[in-house]
Amino acid sequence: MTTADSAPPIRRGRGRPGHDQAAVLRAAVTLFNRRGYDATSIGDLAKELGVTKSAIYHHFASKEDLLRLALADALDELTEVVSAAAGDSAPGSAYDRLREVVRRSVEVLVAHQPAVTLLLRVRGNTPVEVDAVKRRRWLDDQLAELVRAAVAEGALRDDIPPDLVSRLLFGMVNSLVEWYRPDGAYDAQAVAAALAATAFDGLLRR
Amino acid sequence: MTTADSAPPIRRGRGRPGHDQAAVLRAAVTLFNRRGYDATSIGDLAKELGVTKSAIYHHFASKEDLLRLALADALDELTEVVSAAAGDSAPGSAYDRLREVVRRSVEVLVAHQPAVTLLLRVRGNTPVEVDAVKRRRWLDDQLAELVRAAVAEGALRDDIPPDLVSRLLFGMVNSLVEWYRPDGAYDAQAVAAALAATAFDGLLRR
Predict the structure, then answer these.
(1) Which residues of chain B are within 8 Å of residue A36 when distances are taken between CB atoms?
(2) Is a pLDDT exceeding 90 seen at residue A3?
(3) Nearest residue to B86 via CA among B170, B195, B168, B158
(4) Which of B101, B77, B103, B109 is nearest to B180 (CA)?
(5) Which ranges of the sequence are annotated as binding DNA (chains A, B) (predicted)?
(6) Is the pLDDT of residue B142 over 80?
(7) Does residue A2 contact residue A52 with C-beta atoms inside 8 Å?
(8) Does domain B9-57 match CATH 1.10.10.60?
(9) Which CATH code of 1.10.8.60, 1.10.1740.10, 1.10.357.10, 3.40.250.10 fits the domain covering B64-201?
(10) Which of A4, A14, A72, B121 could hold A54 in an S-S bridge, CB 3.0 to 4.6 Å?
(11) Is this complex scored with an ipTM above 0.85?
(12) A198 to B195: CB separation less than 8 angstroms, yes or no
């Protein structure tokens, strides 16, 4: 065990190396996803890591601070992807940009699966959660706008309402957090290609 | 408030009518989805309904009993849909049966959205949760088998692995629990049609 006031105490928990700030955050996200944010305490997290609560408070001010950092991990990446593709000044057709944002979103979801899982389940009323929901809504709005532009330019079919297309398309993308296995048969590139082929070209043999 | 030992005490909670067994179950599912199953106690549920804990125990043996009934609500419906379409003796082509199972799954998700939401988030180690995960896996296996059959009969493209097609297709279906709004612009029929058109025909204008 560690002492509460030594400098980087978490590194020595249970004698395992690498119990640093990032490792605590990873463990917190895993616990939040497994038990729910509300049901998880700093005490639970300390127990899971085999360290004292003080060792965690050495790095993080509060449980909500851990949540904020975990959500920022997912939100910052997704915001970058969507901003690059959805802005008015972005180059290329709306359809090309939509395909690109689908491809890159899949990459982010695969690379940051636990944090995105947490983000997609956020429902609560704490300021951190309210802010995350607001940022998610901004992303959803940008994506819906990009779908509308791809329909308007004539690339996508216009017999399905664009907001429904956007929900279905990114619903399929977001579903990855539920079923994707990093140790499975498919890497991010394979999933992104299969997903784009399914959504844009359709599953029917031609 | 109610007294703990009167016969159907929940009916009289806060003077509202209809606080019967089904209403308690609905409230439990809502709370489980909002806070997580682990973080929700029978006390929380009693408070939410404005009744005593005894009033709840009058109808349900335990918190796990509530979970079991809620999950059965979703699982029984989905099992019926999948069994009707995926069995060897089911009539019609695999492709027709796959379209039908997609359509009916959307209907079940819309009609039982809170219970299916709970089902899709089940992760825990209680016997009820382990059993639900097992039943979900059976459904997933049946659906993957149906997709394989639709590829084998030549209806669906064969350049995407069938197990990945199944994950993407039912990932899109399951995403409904996250974004569908019963008071929104689209009923189950409209969503089912848009989803099937997207997945099978694709979003590109032809």
Answers:
(1) 35-39
(2) no
(3) B170
(4) B109
(5) 41-60
(6) yes
(7) yes
(8) yes
(9) 1.10.357.10
(10) A4
(11) yes
(12) no
